[in-house]
Amino acid sequence: MAVARFSASIFLCVGLLGASMSVQAENPFKKTIDFDFPDNVSWVLKKDTAVKTGRVKEGSDELFFHLSINDKQLKLRFSKNDPSGLVINSRSLNSLVIEDVLVNGERLPIFQWCLNNQQADSGKFKQDTPVEKNACINAEGDFIINLDERSRQILKSAKTLELVTEPYRRTEILNFGMAGYVAIAKKLDAPVMPAKAAPVIAVEKPVPVVVPKAEVKKVVKICQATAPAEYTTIQSVAYPCADAAKKAAAEAKINQKVDAEKKKAELAAAEARKKQVQEKEKTGDAAAKAKAEEEWAKRQTAIWIKRCQKHWANMVSPCYCKSYLEHAPKGVKDTCPAD
Fold first, then answer.
1. Which pLDDT belongs to residue 2?
2. What is the pLDDT of residues 239-257, one digit of tens each?
3. CA dist., res. 265 & res. 93, Å (int)
4. Dihedral angle of Cα 95, 96, 97, 102, to the nearest 10 degrees
5. N or C end of the chain, less CB within 10 A?
6. How many angstroms separate the CA atoms of 332 and 325, rounded?
7. pLDDT at position 151, please?
8. Could you tell me the CA-to-CA distances from 194 to 187, 191, 197, 198 in Å, in that order?
9. Is residue 235 within 8 Å of residue 121, measured between CB atoms?
10. What confidence tens digit (pLDDT) does each residue in 35-89 have?
């Protein structure tokens, strides 16, 4: 019976341990998620842009990753329940981070340039961070790279395009197969043939032509929350000027940094005062010690002079009085043999 109870206990412990490990393994915030959109997900030519859309099921919703590339830029739009990708920030991302952009496993050089020239001390590209010349943009659920000639040529030889992202502080790797992009790119590079002139048709009344309004690209104006002038080491925090909530969050972050600097300065001042007191005490102790040693030496000299005086009265001085001969009467002879 004892053996049976022991076996049951072991089984229960192993079961609990396994359950614990299972919970940890299933924790979605502890692991990196890979989303693969292979070559069989086809490219579509929309006007002057090649578009490839990845789709992921998430509960009752669908997440869409719209990758679009043309002669000027590469754009990745994060969408939710928006197959066309026309709605800006439909997924309501407030802290999107781009960790890397890799072509055939190698970082795209223009993305490295953006990391080096962003107004932030970070190895990642965080949302709403300004970059010199707007070479890269990360705002309102869109990640955009304005391409240079070198980047365009690299993309034409791409077999895979990998974007390492953090939409919700959890790494998600988006793997796009690039097969078929070259054919699309050739169409984009082809010169536009002038349309043949249409024959003139006489009409009695001119037909009004409705010209569609040109699509206006929304430009996000970026503002900076800054610390007081005396805090030169605190970097500014960027935020969309029109977003009051993000403005308040940026200012709160600056205030936290200012408070931290104040506390650091107060601690440094307190430490300096403490050190000053310790040095003063140390100096006082040294002076007191020197004075005590001096008084002790005087007392010792007086004792030895008293002992030597009986010898000095006979005009001689033994060896133990040699150090005190300067106090002996004139004419006293040192009887200590020379060394």
1. 46
2. 999 999 999 999 999 999 9
3. 37
4. 180
5. C
6. 8
7. 95
8. 16, 9, 9, 12
9. yes
10. 999 999 999 999 889 999 999 999 999 999 999 999 999 999 999 999 999 888 8
CA distance linking residue 69 with residue 143, whole number of Å: 12
Of the candidates 68, 168, 79, 154, which has an alpha carbon nearest to the alpha carbon of residue 110? 154
Tell me which amino acid residue 293 is: E
The pTM (predicted TM-score) of the whole model is 0.50
Q: What is the bridge-based pairing of β-strands 333-334 and 316-317?
A: parallel
Are 7 and 15 in contact by the 8 Å Cβ rule? The answer is: no
- DSSP assignment of 152-207: HHHHHT-SEEEEEEETTSS-EEEEEE-TTHHHHHHHHHSPPPPPPPPPP---SSPP
Q: Report the candidate in 52, 47, 40, 45 with the shortest Cα–Cα distance to residue 76.
A: 52
Give the residue carrying structure tokens 């000095």: 312
Q: How far apart are CA 253 and CA 225, in angstroms?
A: 9
In the numeric block, which tokens belong to residue 301?
């000299």
pLDDT digits (tens, 9 = 90+) for 155-189: 999 999 999 999 988 899 999 999 999 888 888 77
